[in-house]
């Protein structure tokens, strides 16, 4: 048991200087916003709006729905920020709220069945894709083929550089589920990029 705990500590991803500075800025902005500083609110929203919209897009697969979910999330963030005890957990807390807003949107869509076809295929913006497929374009295309949960886990872990525990909080799932999603996503991405079917 001790050996497993030590191995887990060794695998823990270190925080980079850039991440550390970003976390300090977030803590300051959150604390200032909690005390009623409007400029801090504006800066916090400006810094996090695109990230929350991107997260919602990964879960929903629709740009307009992602914007709506992020807007709903901001409403909850505004109402709940004063109750946030630890400013350091703001990123995972904000992602979790966004995940829940996305889940509610999906539930409504399933109940109404009017948006069922929109969730079947993720839209692709052909204008933004390069003519000659680069490594990044290939990777982005492969990620779009993953199920929403795996897409979100991969993006939060690798692109947002969150730890597994933070991803679990953000997606409101157990840590083991995040690890499984990351493992499955990596396996599928490898298969897709090597030309196999996942």
Task: Outline the structure in words.
- The structure is a single chain.
- By secondary structure, the chain is an all-alpha fold.
- The chain has ten helices and no strands.
- The chain has helices at 2-11, 17-34, 38-60, 63-80, 90-112, 116-120, 135-144, 148-159, 164-171, 175-193.
- The chain is globular.
- It starts with a helix and ends in a 5-residue tail after the last helix.
Task: Write a short abstract of this structure.
The chain is mainly alpha-helical and 198 residues long. Helices cover 74% and strands 0% of the residues.
Topology:
Layout lengths: L1 H10 L5 H18 L3 H23 L2 H18 L9 H23 L3 H5 L14 H10 L3 H12 L4 H8 L3 H19 L5
Helix-strand string: HHHHHHHHHH
Total count of helical runs of at least 4 residues: 10
| Total beta strands | 0
How much is the average pLDDT? 79
Low-pLDDT ranges:
1-5, 113-132
Q: Determine the fraction of residues in helical runs and give it as a percent range.
A: over 70%
Shape: globular
Overall SS class: mainly alpha
Q: Strand share of the residues? A: under 5%
End-to-end distance, in Å? Answer: 35 Å
Radius of gyration: 18 Å
Major β-sheet, in short?
none
